[in-house]
User: What shape does this take?
Amino acid sequence: MTATSTDPGTGTGAARAAFDPRPYTAAGHTLRSWLTTTDHKRVAILYLIAITGFFALGAVGAVLVRLELATPRPDLLSAETYNRAFTMHGIVMVWFFLIPSIPNVFGNFLIPLMIGARDLAFPRLNLLSWYIYVLAGLFTIVTLVKGGVDTGWTFYTPLSTQFANGHVLLAAAGVFTAGFSSILTGLNFIVTIHTMRAPGMTWFRLPIFVWSHYATSILLVLATPVLAMALILIVAERGFGVGIFDPRLGGDPLLFQHLFWFYSHPAVYIMVLPAMGVVTELISTFAGRAVFGYRFVAYASLAIAALGFLVWGHHMFVSGQSMYASVVFSFLSFLVAVPSAVKVYNWAATLYRAEIRFTAPLLYGLSFIGLFVFGGLTGLILASLALDVHAHDTTFVVAHFHYIMVGGAVTAYLGAMHFWWPKITGRLYPDALAKLSVLLLYVGFNLTFFPQYILGWLGMPRRYHEYPAEFQVWHLLSTAGAGLLAFAYLLPLVYLPWSLRWGQRAGPNPWGATGLEWRVPSPPPTHNFDRIPTVTWEAYTPEATAETKDTPP
Amino acid sequence: MTGRTGAGPGTTASPGQLGLWLFLSTEVMMFGALLLAITLARLGRSGAAPFDKGLGAANTAILLTSSLLVAVAVERSGPCSGPGRARLPLVGAAALGVAFLAVKAVEYRADFAKGLVPGPDLFVNLYYVATALHAVHLTIGVALLAGLALVRPQPSTVEAAGLYWHFVDLVWVFLYPALYLVPG
Ligand SMILES: [Cu+2]
Assistant: This one.
């Protein structure tokens, strides 16, 4: 019997008779068919397109910032415009690219395929969350371009409620609305993973990618509402004059920081946990082995999610919060390193003495590990009470979180793109070009952000658009690196679309991977599985793959 | 066709129920953040809470009674009950919701008359934010229950709306002591 045998109780005759073997991409070619689709794969494509657009807009802000900082004098942008540029960069990249990136594109596309389901639990809700995301995003962009917001992505009070010029209220409303999209996605994923797994797909047979998304979804559902409350309170103060954060109105400015970071620290894990899930799949596939210490890696996701709720105070060491609170937050922040290191060591152990195939996706995965480890280690410096006082609000912090969020999350996003592209589109891309873009990314990224560690340590504050002349050499290196990095991000935008037409056709499983998604044709049919598979093997079992590899799709 | 196989090992809750509970957990976190802020503001001020305990207690009684009626409606919408038997308790609960809002309006007026307006006292400011946000949730609940009384709803729909109503009630059960009772 093949691995995809059907449980007689589940693959109903009616469903099989209605099964359409054509790929999901052929289900309709009109714009209308895409904008009204509830197929999780098509919604994923909608997200992919929208997210790529927002990434480009966020990048514009970054380019302006880096160009301005190439010289010590403020010559390109005024102080006001500079503030608006980095605020736009931060808001767009965090809420409209990073948070939805891997979950909404790859989670959406892959979770039902990986667990042996035909769609998410709530397909229409899934489409709704895309509409909310896009409308909130466009609204926010218009706000940022027309009125401008100069508070930084953190909306700190009393700056945001008293002094900021621009449409703080509207921008906050846009981010607030986008939060509903996050919550609906998280809710959809949790319910799907609980109720839609194929027969025999037990929790410990799930790919680590699914575990990571489960942990991420918990954060989306439980942390996002706290941000919502923080934004509601800003609206209450700025819109209705009810003092919450402004001391002159009886408010407490620190309260905002507590609420904001209660969300925004877990938000970092919303960005990084899916990335870790992606990297685990890459490593296991190209090492040709099951993940070393599967259960530890799975539980580490949940541990990171849980600890993530308890460390927000490490952003507030110099805010005047209680010293004893700071000590506790510092200690708990160090603890997060433990499950993170568990993952890194398990990846290393999976690779140890394996017959590694150095494909482009794996190189993205290895780049992730290098950059993530470096970002994580500098995070320990910032989690130390005394050292943070020195580095706080400098570009050292900027470098640290870019290593995690760009070096980590964006690199993994591109790794996922290169790994599942043949599944999503049915085409292969030119491997050499992909490898070139990884190389450019790794060099360009380090050149951009490593100098910022040095600058920060020397005392360069973040969010300043002029600086002493002796800092210029580091700033120039950083700007040059940003150019390289931009090229590394643009290259896939050329050869991936090129491959849609001219790329070699990919079979169902070009990488010899083990997940259920590789047991259906590429691109998958609209309803994913002709027969719902019955899973009888453990996760990452290659024998089962060998059985189905012979069977043509 | 959603392709649901129902074979998720060891899972009993329906997707709809699970989704609703997750939605409510989102709401819990949102109001939780607000309650935390209220608690902090309470710790930072001296003197008893200035709000009218009597009206607050009356509103607590009103909401608890409405929750009882909602529970009765859920019971009566089951398959063993005749059609339309859930209508009366639904209407009653929605009416009690309106009564709550009316009492709240009277209370706001009295507060304003006493000079308890948004001003230099964070605790008072948060009182307005919390009660207003709760009133918004309650208004949605009233609309839901009234809407269900007009149609002949599925038992699961009544249960879902009921769950939401109980949640809004529960938020008040936490807000009432935090805002009115805790001594300074
Ligand atoms: Cu943090």
Remarks:
- The pocket of copper (II) ion is lined by residues A 265, 268, 311, 314-315 (CB under 6 Å).
- Residues 15-43 of chain B form the longest helix (29 residues).
